[in-house]
Amino acid sequence: xxxxxxxxxxxxxxxxxxxxxxxxxxxxxxxxxxxxxxxxxxxxxxxxxxxxxxxxxxxxxxxxxxxxxxxxxxxxxxxxxxxxxxxxxxxxxxxxxxxxxxxxxxxxxxxxxxxxxxxxxxxxxxxxxxxxxxxxxxxxxxxxxxxxxxxxxxxxxxxxxxxxxxxxxxxxxxxxxxxxxxxxxxxxxxxxxxxxxxxxxxxxxxxxxxxxxxxxxxxxxxxxxxxxxxxxxxxxxxxxxxxxxxxxxxxxxxxxxxxxxxxxxxxxxxxxxxxxxxxxxxxxxxxxxxxxxxxxxxxxxxxxxxxxxxxxxxxxxxxxxxxxxxxxxxxxxxxxxxxxxxxxxxxxxxxxxxxxxxxxxxxxxxxxxxxxxxxxxxxx
Length: 380
What we know:
42% of the residues lie in helices and 21% in strands. It has eleven helices and 15 strands. The chain has helices at residues 115-128, 149-197, 205-216, 226-229, 233-253, 260-271, 278-285, 314-328, 333-340, 344-356, 375-379, and strands spanning 5-7, 17-28, 31-32, 38-43, 46-50, 58-62, 66-72, 80-86, 105-110, 257-259, 295-299, 305-309, 331-332, 360-365, 368-373. The strands form three sheets. Strands 1, 2, 3, 4, 5, 6, 7, 8 and 9 form a nine-stranded antiparallel β-sheet that branches. It has a three-stranded antiparallel β-sheet with strand order 10-12-11. The protein starts with a strand and ends with a helix. The relative contact order is 0.07.
C-alpha cells in the first residue's frame, strides 16, 4: 500500500478514463485494509480508488509502479481477485495512506464481478505504456484581428497587392531563367546530334537511333512567331521552313510519313511556350511544295492528313505495301501499324489507298477488316 498516493480524482493532461468497476476492496498483500466497497477507475496513467460514501476520499496508484498483474480464482463462493505485483516505492513519492509496507503486492477483490473485463483492459494499458508518451503542447490561438473600419480594409488590400506583385515578379524571374536554360539545352542537343551523325564515339546503331530520337524532340531554340514575322503569308512561309527543318529527320525515321496530328504534338512540345494553332500548322504545311521543301502535305480519301517525304513517292509507298501484303499473306490496320511503326489510323489509310489503286482486296468479317493481295490483277 505504500505505492498509493492521495488524489483528488482529477486527471492530468493527456490522461483518459479507460474503464471502471464498483464494489472493489483492496488488500495489502493478504491483509485487509480500510478501503472497502469503493469505485475503481482505470485510466491511461493511474488506478484510482474512490470511496463510495465519501466521494472526496480517493487514492491513486501510478501504472508505472505495477510490475505485472494476474487474475486469481479463490474457489466457489468467494469473490474473484486481481493481484498486482509492484515495483519498490520511489524515493520522494507524494504522501499516501501509508508510508511503508512489508508486502510487494496488493489484491483487488471484485464483490460485484466484472474482473475479467477489467483485467483485460488493465493488461492492455500496461502493454501500451501511454504514460510514457510526451504530452502534446497546447495549440496557441491566433490573435484576433482588430477591425479598423475602412482604413484597415484599405491597408489589408494594399498589403495583399504588394504580396501578389512580389510573387509574380519572382515567378517571371524563374520563368526567364528556365527559358535561358532551355535554349542552352537545345543548342547542346544539336551539338550531340551532329557528333552522332559523324559516327564519333563508341555507341551502337540502336543507341544512335535512340539518342537521335530523344535529342531531336528536345525543342526549337528560336520558334517563328507572329510577333517576329508578322501575320501574313510571310509568317506561314517562314514557319513552313522551320517545320520542314525540324520534321525531316523524324519523318525519315518514321518510314517517310507522319500523321498531321502526331506532327502537331511534336511541334508544340518543341516550341514550349510559343504554341502553334492547328490552322497555322495546316496553312504552313501547304507552303511546303511552293518553297521546294523536302516535305509535302497529303490528304487520304479517308480524311486523314499526313506529312510525307517528296523523295518517297506514291508508287514507292504502294510497292512496299504490296510486298508486305505478299510476304504476310494478309494485313489489318493493327498489323501494319506494328510492322512499320505508324499509327493505326495512318495504317488504315494506307491500306485503303492500296485498295483504291487495285493493289489490295478487303475482307470484312466479324473479326474486323483485313486486306489481301489483289490476285485478280496479279493472276491475270
